[in-house]
Amino acid sequence: MVERHHLLPGAAAFAAALFVALLGLSAGARESGPARAGVVELQLLGVNDFHGHLEPPEPAVGGAAWLGAWLDRAAASHPDRTIRVHAGDMVGVSPLISSHFDDEPTIEATNLMGLDVGTLGNHEFDEGGAEALRLVRRARYPYVAANTVSREGGELILPPYRIVERSGAKVGFIGVTTKDTPYFLLSQFAREYRWLDLSESVNRWVAELRARGVEAIVVLAHAGAFGDGRRAAGEIVDEARQMDDAVDVVIAGHTHSELNLRVGGKLIVEALSYGTAFDRVRLTVDRTSGDVVAKSALVVATRHGGIRPDPELATLVERHRQAVAPLAERVVGHAAGALDNAAVDRIAVRSERAWAGADLAFLNPGNTRSEIGAGPITYAEAAEVQAYEHPVWRLRMRGADLLEAMAEQPGLLVSGPRDLDPQATYTVAANGIVAEREPFAHAIEREQLGTDLDALTAWLSRDRSTGALYASTRP
Predict the structure, then answer these.
(1) Angle 3-312-116 (CA atoms, 0-180°, nearest 5)?
(2) Measured distance between the N- and C-terminal CA atoms of the chain, rounded to whole angstroms
(3) CATH classification at residue 432
(4) Residues in CB range of 445: below 8 A, 6 or more apart
């Protein structure tokens, strides 16, 4: 199954990336010989947007056991001088093998990978702050969060930074999360916290780190950009320009992009998603001043060829695969042909309309997470499509309000008639994100009916007897 918004690179691109990665890793082994007087070379290995993909998301690429093996191989070039980090969204909208167990297997996998420090992504908050912090407490490494504060008092929910020392050199890590986080959350969870300006938050703690004698500073930013690797535009590029010049490196995330560029002297690197790649950053640090005097980065693809999976991680994954298999492998439908993003969206909004017995249904774009391949559709595949498992609401609304919503929010996916009577009242289905926004939040009546995954599996199962599932162009 292919995740809908951030498609994996093609085989040719991965082969090229692997060739470059192997050259870089072998070169790294040579570089790590006798240290130059007065300096030490450190290595950062970074991961972002793993999203609970314990199993390979595509054939022969990624998966926790291979990611762990690649990190170990890379670390071997800099024994005792490597720091392993992540930039958030390690969990959230995860495949069933992780989500069914409340994402605890993924946190355990990151423990086995030997991570040293991480930060929060927007998806860590999908089920609220209490759940996010519960998972943080299961990690055997610290999380840092410099711009996530309580709604009322404005207190930080986690320490803003962490200092890690290797070979006498100190590196300060500051964590920040995209300001867009509330947009992705149900309102009950978005109201729990505030997400402050990224660069202002970073700059506040840069000053404290420098006061403590730390000059090598890395930002773990769950914020990204889009581009061709060395040229990009987006939130992290804009924010990096406003960060203190003392910041040396930004390990980015959120956009599932491949980034390796410099902005205002800062090195920004992001390694795709789902564990299909990782960042390898080299920092040369002056032992006397603590300053970074040289830096470089490489994004390394985690292909399976020429490397054996980590056995402990492989055992963890297999144990949970077997435990969830009776549910995951249950067939809930059949697709006569591959269903692309648009077709999956149409099916999702139709399924919620049918589930609620509604006149119309509304769905926010981006709520479905995967395409569907031809053939039998398993519960695990359906769960990856509707990975949020947002509630479905049955609403009673005036036609005038619905016409206004369709005019002012043209991106909404709609199933049902458009020629509504402004004076009439209609039954409407909407998922939790839509139902909490204007004008749906002021429905005449509202009733919760289950989840969007319940609706989708019911729809798919309804068509099983025909042996085929078709998606027309009409919603």
Answers:
(1) 75
(2) 23
(3) 3.90.780.10
(4) 395, 396
Q: Which of 271, 290, 321 is the last residue of a domain?
A: 321
In the chain, the amino acid numbered 9 is: P
* The pTM of the whole model exceeds 0.85: yes
* CATH code of the domain covering residue 181: 3.60.21.10
- Count the Cβ atoms, other than its own, within 10 Å of residue 391: 18
Contacts of 117 (CB under 8 A, 6+ apart): 83, 85, 141, 142, 143, 144, 162, 164, 173, 175, 220
The pLDDT of residue 12 is above 60: no
Identify whether 471 is part of a domain: no
Within a domain: residue 286? Answer: yes
pLDDT for residue 4 is more than 80: no
pLDDT tens-place string over residues 428-449: 999 999 999 999 999 999 999 9
Q: Examine residue 3 and state whether it is found in any structural domain, yes or no.
A: no
Give the residue among 287, 281, 293 at the shortest CA–CA distance from 84: 281
Question: Could you give the angle at the alpha carbon of 413 between the alpha carbons of 235 and 50, nearest 5°?
Answer: 45
Q: Is residue 326 part of a domain?
A: no
> Could you tell me if 208 and 246 are in contact, meaning their C-beta atoms sit under 8 angstroms apart?
no
The full 3-state SS of 344-399, as one line of letters, equals: HHHHHHHHHHHHHCCCEEEECCCCCCECECCEEEEHHHHHHHCCCCCEEEEEEEEH
Distance CA 161, CA 205 (A): 7
d(CA 405, CA 410): 8
Tell me which residue range forms the domain holding 453.
331-466
